[in-house]
Amino acid sequence: MPTSVLLPGISQRRCRTARLETAYLEAGSGESTLILIHGNCSSSLFFQDLMLALAALGYHVYAPDMRGYGDSQALPIDATRGVRDLSDDLASFAEALGLSDFHLLGWSLGGNVAMQYAIDYPGRLHSLILEATGSPFGFGGTRDVAGRPVWPDFAGSGGGTANADFVQRLAAGDRSAEQGSPRAVMNNFYFKPPFRVTPEREEIYVSAILSTRTGSGNYPGDSVPSPNWPYVAPGRQGVNNALSPAYLKQEALTDLSPKPPILWIHGADDRIVSDASLFDLGYLGQLGIVPGWPGPDQYPPQPMKAQIRHILERYRQRGGVYHELLLNDCGHSPHIEKPQQVLEAMRDFMAAHS
């Protein structure tokens, strides 16, 4: 990795785990440990300012790159396991570093990975922080808060729903500001316009996005044709298929014992994880952007945030604790758009549950 993308106080290291070679960032040396898991089409580089702020509070912070992102090994993802390839990678990373218990934050896709880790490795977390997390019922293809599928084959979710032009621009390393470029997508969807980071940070974040490996085994994954609108169903490989409700089912979070306390941080103006997501084909069909939409009775927009709240309320009803931080005038990246509010909420929450 070019040193220009690393901020002073951040170190990049590598470790060979039982599953893959993982690159990770590290900051701080305190006794309390926190692991940060990035989202889709990003990498650990998005966390550097947050890491430095947490290190100043006395935390030892790690941020690994998931497989197929950043500088970690680009092994294919078996989507039929949901996000378990990624959560098992996290478990292997923690074991390689000798981390037996810690706080865990997952952002976007990383939130689904963090929830899966909590489900499959109970009793290891001091706390679980879900930042702009994806729905426990996956991305696309469900109709209500209980996650019922629109179609039996989950059409409208998976690798075939990604924008083909965006995938090509990723593969080509496009650093332009043209409409549809990774830079433009970041500024229009990762953040709530007109928010912009400094030019230095923007270049770092674009580099992070462009580190995403493309192809059937990584981003976005393969797909199969469907007789059901929008005529594409999930395949069996790659990250977007791992997020399909055909394979991602995380209701078991509510049955955990013990139940780590949860902090849900999200922006009120998130355009990615939303009940009106501009990445959801159901909502895009409603807007007339994707033709042939069969209407709200057959294919309603996915109520993503309502689904998250539904699961968290069940978590509470079954003896768990969750807190919510809803940030106004904020999009999909609260730790970047509202850093002080996020830092203070994390500090108080983790201090109460160490």
Describe this structure in words.
With 354 residues, this protein is an alpha/beta fold. It has one domain (3-352): Rossmann fold. 30% of the residues lie in helices and 17% in strands. α2 crosses α3 (109-120). The longest helix has 14 residues, at 304-317. The protein is globular.
Keywords:
Rossmann fold; alpha/beta; 17% strand; 354 residues; globular; 30% helix; 8-stranded mixed beta sheet; two-stranded parallel ribbon; 11 helices
Which CATH class is shown? Alpha Beta
Summarize model confidence as the mean pLDDT: 97
Q: Main beta sheet: strand number and arrangement?
A: 8 strands, mixed
Quickly give the structural class.
alpha/beta
| Assembly context of the chains | single chain
Shape: globular
Tally of helical segments? 11
- Rounded to the nearest angstrom, the radius of gyration is 19 Å
User: Reading side by side through the largest sheet, how are the strands ordered?
Assistant: 1-2-4-3-5-6-11-12
What name is given to the CATH topology?
Answer: Rossmann fold
List low-confidence stretches.
none
Number of domains: 1
* End-to-end Cα distance: 34 Å
Fourth CATH level, the homologous superfamily: Alpha/Beta hydrolase fold, catalytic domain
